[in-house]
Design brief:
The chain has helices spanning 3-28, 38-50, 62-65, 134-153, 175-182, 230-248, 299-314, 346-360, 375-381, 405-423, and strands at residues 54-59, 82-88, 98-103, 123-125, 128-130, 156-158, 162-167, 190-192, 200-204, 206-215, 267-274, 284-293, 326-334, 337-338, 366-368, 386-388, 393-394, 402-404, 425-427. By secondary structure, it is of the alpha+beta class. The longest helix is centred in the first third of the chain and has 26 residues, at 3-28. The model has no long low-confidence stretch (mean pLDDT 96).
Length: 428
């Protein structure tokens, strides 16, 4: 690609950027929390169809994917889970194919009075767009779409097939991305613009979600000593899990990409409930746990150790000793993924590095993150290098989530140049 084409592509992104910001605001107005993504997906499907992409919209079915590597267990069904993929088929197919992946689901808002403005009424202030999902990761979905728009504006298109994916379930299982693999979508590389500040993610952790169900003996609080308090029984079990967390973070256990992280693996007690009445000793307690693990760490081994830790801690409790905790896995059962371990990733990384430098004038920063993304599905189960690179955002999963619009512009420009360099170009 010569400098004239490069300049034309950058200018084309500038020309469509106001439309991209308006599109992002409209997309973020859809409250696409888990189970409520349908209107946002209809919006994405309509946008793809308007651009002449071949649109595939389908309901994710557990029975189609439950047998596949990478599947995470779910509670309930997927009657409301819809994926959308728009494909642009190349005439010449002289380049390398590409998946542009993003997720449309967002996490709950929390108390609305803790937001400075309504989370699903996006607003722009001082170069930032505020609202739930602006950063994580609807700005990425918009940049994927408008990178293709910028090419089309100057009469060009990728010279290889490109699949634009808008998936659900990323925030709790990743099964939406898995369903795309089951559906047959493959490419020579994948790009996922998650909000990591224009940094290439070199490694990501695995994640396990599980619930611990405890029983107790309910009695009137006046006779509390004769009962068994299920809520208080959770405390030593949680303490034992944190001891396990410390062991897993030991230097001898760390993946090479995380040798500089003293505490990469975080255990979180994300939710707890129990009891029925303030003056009754609680007969039940349920707490939800998120635990991370390193790339290459066995999920099955991790599960066995989690269960051994919980059952071992229960032995110190008079009631739980004979009424073992019940452990239910639901949501993430996800392996870690290291791009550095992917031997065929170098050409894709080089193409992204060149595009990033052309836009920013700087080398591409790289980092191992302490979260997970859908990249693992492509990298581990489809032998597809998965590049995670997206805009700068703040307070994702928090109050007043926001995305830096100047960064979104740069990411869209980088994506357009990456498409041109990776896929090649053909005339529309």
């Amino acid at each position: 690609m010569d400098s004239k084409d490069q300049t034309a592509i950058l200018n084309a992104v500038d020309a469509v950027f106001d439309d991209e910001v308006a599109f992002l605001a409209e997309l973020c107005a859809h409250p696409s929390t888990r189970g409520n993504e349908q209107s946002a997906q209809a919006f994405m499907a309509a946008a793809m169809a308007a651009r002449g992409l071949k649109v595939d919209r389908w309901q994710v079915r557990v029975e189609d994917i439950a047998h596949l590597p990478g599947f995470s267990p779910v509670i309930g069904n997927y009657d409301d889970a819809v994926n959308v993929v728009g494909t642009r088929h190349s005439r010449t197919r002289i380049g390398k194919s590409l998946i542009l992946n993003g997720h449309v689901d967002v996490v709950p808002t929390g108390p609305l009075d803790m937001w400075d403005s309504p989370p699903f009424q996006p607003r722009v202030d001082d170069g930032w767009m505020y609202g739930r999902g602006t950063g994580d990761m609807k700005a990425g979905l918009a940049s994927n779409l408008y990178a293709l728009d910028a090419l089309a504006r100057i009469g060009l298109a990728p010279a290889a097939d490109v699949h634009l994916q808008s998936v659900v379930e990323e925030e709790c299982t990743g099964n939406g991305a898995l369903a795309c693999l089951q559906r047959g979508y493959r490419a020579d590389a994948a790009l996922i613009p998650e909000p990591f500040a224009e940094t290439l993610v070199t490694a990501q952790l695995g994640v396990i979600w599980f619930q611990v169900h405890l029983k107790g003996i309910p009695v009137h609080v006046a006779f509390a000593g004769s009962g068994a308090n299920a809520i208080e029984a959770a405390l030593p079990l949680i303490a034992a899990l944190h001891q396990m967390e410390a062991r897993w973070n030991a230097p001898s256990c760390r993946h090479a990409a995380y040798q500089g992280h003293d505490h990469a693996l975080n255990l979180n007690i994300g939710r707890i409930s129990g009891g029925d009445w303030t003056s009754s000793v609680p007969a039940w307690c349920v707490f939800d746990v998120r635990m991370a693990l390193f790339p290459g760490q066995s999920l099955d081994d991790a599960r066995r150790e989690i269960e051994a830790v919980l059952h071992g801690a229960a032995q110190s409790h008079a009631f739980l000793r004979n009424n073992a905790p019940e452990i239910i896995y639901h949501g993430f059962f996800a392996e870690g993924y290291a791009l550095a371990d992917h031997k065929s990733a170098a050409p894709a990384i080089a193409a992204l590095q060149g595009a990033h430098r052309a836009v920013t004038g700087a080398d591409l920063d790289r980092a191992a993150i302490t979260a997970t993304t859908d990249a693992r599905f492509f990298g581990l189960y489809a032998d597809t290098p998965a590049l995670v690179y997206g805009p700068r955002a703040e307070a994702i999963h928090g109050f007043n989530e926001r995305v830096d619009l100047a960064s979104v512009r740069r990411v869209t420009q980088t994506t357009a140049l990456f498409i041109a360099g990776w896929c090649g170009l053909e005339e529309l």
